[in-house]
Automatic annotation (TrEMBL):
Protein name as annotated: Probable allantoicase
Biological or metabolic pathway of the protein: Nitrogen metabolism; (S)-allantoin degradation; (S)-ureidoglycolate from allantoate (aminidohydrolase route): step 1/1
Gene transcribed to yield this protein: alc
Lineage summary: Bacteria, Pseudomonadati, Pseudomonadota, Betaproteobacteria, Rhodocyclales
Catalytic activity reported: allantoate + H2O = (S)-ureidoglycolate + urea
Family, as annotated: Belongs to the allantoicase family.
Keyword Hydrolase belongs to the record: yes
A GO MF term: allantoicase activity
Coiled-coil residues: none
Gene3D superfamilies: Galactose-binding domain-like (2.60.120.260)
Domain Allantoicase: 33-181, 202-345
EC number per UniProt: 3.5.3.4
Organism, scientific name: Parazoarcus communis SWub3 = DSM 12120
UniProt superkingdom: Bacteria
Length: 348
């Protein structure tokens, strides 16, 4: 008997994100260290698949020992009272704006509803988390088949762990938790050199003029080097005068001593030059801060860049004192994988 060869995979389309999500960070990204810690049942699909940063896929004809292979968290059909649930540790603690509960490729096996609770804990021990006090931040919300569900959080507090409840059972392909990282530098040693812009230290992307390729400017702040040319901030080919830019907020006020601009994997499309402006900002909306950034002082004058390389600058940095925000300019366009601002935290 001839063996059956699974068909070509079908990838889920991306979500059409509202502004509150597109301007946020996925706090449940495994790139940030997020983990699926526990599931009441994941017979058909391991709960760790739910946090996979890649789009969900459906592979026709692919089966495993328990049945049809599905790309996501899927429990068995519940034959007793109750519902299935999972514990998720966020990659960084943060304020949660909302969620994408993605049921892509789950058609007759999606859960009819989902709710999400949150807590703050220093422990990832499952028994300790089961006994923790949980706060509902997403009330029971209806789900449909094969769809992205963009659902807003009811809380503006800071959280570290989530309990995802699906009623009563079924499958969730992906969970994205959109929010803003908070803290990370509270315990930084006095005088220690730290990456003040790193996402895990509370850095965030405020605004950017273009992100036609690759990811939004927030990718500049991710841990590690980029894994490919899609893992970075890349703009379209500029056909008019000017340059591309993004505005970024540090995790804490600090004095910059070293800057790294990494063009990993960008070979025929790296920017010709870059510069950085900076300021200490005490108040303002993202929109007003972006407008002000046009007139900030120069932290790093224009510097030449090369392909697929880490560029380190220290002597070229202008002494501006403590700063909270930077405007990263690339000339005229192109792609950058990571930006690191190494400095010392300034305590108020």
């Amino acid at each position: 008997m001839a063996s059956h060869t699974p068909g070509a995979p079908v990838f889920a389309p991306p979500a059409n994100l509202p502004e509150w999500a597109s301007r946020s960070v996925d706090l449940a990204s495994t790139r940030l260290g997020a983990q699926a810690l526990y599931a009441s049942d994941d017979f058909f699909g391991e709960v760790v698949r739910m946090l996979n940063p890649e789009p969900a896929q459906f592979v026709p004809g692919k089966f495993d020992v328990n049945g049809k292979w599905m790309d996501g968290w899927e429990s068995r059909r519940k034959r007793v009272a109750g519902h299935d649930w999972a514990l998720v540790k966020l990659g960084v603690k943060g304020v949660i704006r909302g969620f994408d509960v993605d049921t892509s490729h789950f058609t007759g096996n999606y859960p009819p509803a989902v709710s999400i609770e949150a807590t703050v804990s220093d422990s990832d021990d499952v028994d300790a988390l089961k006994a923790a006090t949980w706060t509902e931040i997403l009330p029971p919300s209806a789900l449909g088949p094969n769809s992205h569900h963009l659902l807003e959080s009811t809380s503006d507090a800071v959280w570290t762990h989530l309990r995802v409840n699906m009623y009563p059972d079924g499958g969730i392909a992906r969970l994205r938790v959109y929010g803003r990282p908070v803290g990370g530098l509270e315990n930084a040693l006095a005088g220690a050199l730290v990456d003040l812009l790193a996402m895990e230290n509370g850095g965030r992307a405020v605004s950017w003029n273009d992100a036609s390729f690759g990811s939004a400017a927030a990718a500049l702040l991710l841990p590690g080097r980029g894994v490919n040319m899609g893992d970075g901030w890349e703009t379209r080919r500029r056909r008019e005068p000017g340059n591309d830019w993004c505005v970024l907020e540090l995790g804490a006020p600090g004095i910059i001593e070293k800057i790294e601009v990494d063009t990993a994997f960008f070979k025929g499309n790296f920017p010709d030059r870059c510069s950085i402006q900076a300021a200490r900002v005490s108040a303002g909306t993202d929109r007003s801060i972006t407008t002000q950034s046009l007139f900030w002082d120069t932290l790093l004058p224009e510097q030449k860049l090369t392909a697929d390389a880490i560029h380190t600058f220290s002597e070229q940095i202008t002494a501006l004192g403590p700063i909270t925000h930077v405007r990263f300019n690339i000339f005229p366009d192109g792609g950058v994988s990571r930006l690191r601002l190494w400095g010392k935290v300034v305590r108020d």
